[in-house]
Every structure is written in structure tokens, then in C-alpha cells.
Amino acid sequence: MARTTGSHSDITGPRIRETASRLFARHGFAAVSMRRIAGEVGVQAGALYNYMPDKQSLLFGLMQGHMQELLQARAKRDVPETVIAQLEDFVRFHIRFHLEKPDAVFISYMELRNLTPENFAVIEGLRRSYEDSLETILRNGATSGELKVPDTKIATLAVIAMLNGVNTWYRDDGRLTLDEIEAIYWDMVRKAVLPNGSA
Amino acid sequence: MARTTGSHSDITGPRIRETASRLFARHGFAAVSMRRIAGEVGVQAGALYNYMPDKQSLLFGLMQGHMQELLQARAKRDVPETVIAQLEDFVRFHIRFHLEKPDAVFISYMELRNLTPENFAVIEGLRRSYEDSLETILRNGATSGELKVPDTKIATLAVIAMLNGVNTWYRDDGRLTLDEIEAIYWDMVRKAVLPNGSA
DNA sequence: GTCTATAGGACGATAGAC
DNA sequence: GTCTATCGTCCTATAGAC
User: Fold this and answer.
1) Which of A4, A56, B51, B149 is the residue whose CA sits 20 to 30 A from A27?
2) Global pTM?
């Protein structure tokens, strides 16, 4: 059964999202035109509107999809028994997941200001629930005395900010393996939240 | 001696820079038009070109000015004797300086991709020399054994990324004072780079 | 130094043919 | 589903009067 001439809905949609993600990450949402996205996909600008009502929806869809993937991947992991092991798992998961999707990560925190207020609230909610999964670990550790953090909320944001930094300098052909990078960051995070003088 | 009617070069220039800095930080360089900057300053768009050759120069000037201020403020500080004290001084200086100029900070790392390659190289050079001032402290500490960092370069970037995170959540009317915030971050940074089991 | 006016082009989004 | 064509708007930057 031959497909209608010129019809490629099954591949054009994903290709639009991939192309837009790459271009938004590289040049910024506001600096990338619908014409340019269409051009790199290989269609005319008007054709994009078969897949989304407007440019804002394209951005929101990319960010929402990324945050949902992040939360789902996180939810799928087995929860280690000890707080320390849970924290190590978070650190390694976070670094690995974020290095696998650098464009989506970049967009999801650089383009927040280009979301409508309604869309912004949705993305912030998803981000907040991811942060909460780390804060819960730190709070449990602080309560049990296994960890010592001056302020649970700030420690959460500090750890995430530190880990996010990897994306700014990592290169596939760099001198360190992914395992080495995870180990280095885990060492720093672990020491930062352990009580003074602990192993 | 009356000034020429309509002439305000002494105040319009700074006002353009302040307004552009605020708008670029809030909405992004590409999303802010020269008309809008002019409108908020209170002049017509064409008048802006008495102060800069083009929009790119405006962005570059803001970023270069910010980085030079940062480096000069850093250079002015007395250097404490011990490595630990030098590190504490860096942490407190960094947090305080960056919280004082949130718009310029935001622009200087969010709008790098909107610089021409030549301008980008200049800003990156300035940023690099700031990072080097921290890396030198960490390397000296590692050599003497006062500190233990798995990788000097990565530790430098990790500490700066962690400290930069403050700007994403700090509010003037928040529950913590600037001194408390500095103390919390200094506690985490100190522990992260000390040898295991040190005070 | 600021104004008005505009050149010359790119923008997001839509209409209608196929 | 994609195309061509276009609407109406906005953009950066410049020219020339005052």
C-alpha cells in the first residue's frame, strides 16, 4: 500500500523535534526561526504547523518531554538500602543521564524565560519534584546523623548545581572516562555532606 | 552655560547600559529589540547608535565590563596567608560579588553563544583567568597536603558551579542573611576539598 | 545628541492548491 | 502532508533635518 506522495508524518515529526532541540541548544530559542528549523529538516516552514500549533508549543513540548523522561528514568531505579548508597546512586545517575542528553538539558534550564507563565509553572513543577527526590535523601541522612548538612534545601541545590556543571566542560574525547568523572564528583559530594571527620 | 537642547550624553549612555543589562537578563539578548531598549530609556531607537556601532557591541561591552570588574575586585583583595584562608576568602568574595550583580552575571554566562567568535574568545579568556585564581589555590593546597582534590581542574569548575547556583535561588527578602549563606557554602566547599577526616 | 522617516529584510503564522 | 504565496508585523541600521 503506497503512501500518499509527499507524506512523511511518521518521520518528519521526530526530525522536527531533534532539529529544533539541536538548534535551540546551540543558538537559543529566540534566535532560531521556524524557517531555519524547516530548512534543516528539509521541508517548508508552513509544513511545521502540521505538527504543532505554534513555536511556543514546540519549545514547551521539548522541555516537558525531557523532564518527564528524567523523572521516569529516576523512578525506575532500585532504591539502595542505605542513605549513603542512595546519595551515590543519585550522583551517578544524574551525571550519566545529563551527559547523555546535553541539548535537552541545556534548553531546559536556559529557555525557562521564554516559556509562557502557564508553561513555566508546569516545567518548574517537574523540576521541583526531581529536586525533592534528592532533598529527601539528604533530609533522611541528616535526621539519622549519617549526614551533616547545614541546610537541607540549600545543600540540595548546591549538589545539583555542582553536578550540572559537568555538562559545561565534558567532551566525548576528553581525558577522563565517564566512570572517572562520576567517581571524582561522588568523592566531592560525599565529603561535602558527611559529618566532619567521617570516612 | 546652557547645554544644547536635547543633549544628554552624560546620562543616556549609562542608562542604555543599565536598561539593556536588565532586559537582556530578563528576556535574553535575541528577544530584546533596540526599539524596546530605547523605549525604556526614553529615546528613539536611532539615538542608541550614538553610543555604540551595533547591538553586538552593546552585549560585548556589558560582558567585558562585568568580567573586568570581577577581576579587578578580586585583584584588590589582600591575600590571606594560609591556603585554607585563601579558599575561604575566594568563596565569600565570589558569593558576595555575584549576588551584587545578578543581571551582569546572568548575561555573562547565558549569552556567550550570541557573541561573535572574536568577542567570545575575549570573554572566555577573562573567565579563564578568574578560574585560574581559584585553581592556583587548590593546587597549592593539594601540593602541600592541606587539601585533597581528586582533580584540580574539575574541582575548580565544581566549586564555581556550586557557588554560581546561589544566584538562581537567592532573594533579598529570603530567610537567610548573606553571612549565613556564605557560611553554609563555605562549610560545604571546605569539607569537599579537605582530606578525609580533617577538621 | 536626538529626532523622524525609511530602507531592506526576516519574522510567525495562515490560506488554499495539490 | 507538503507546497507556494502571502499577510501583517517587527527587526537592525542608516540618512538627513534640527
Assistant:
1) B51
2) 0.95
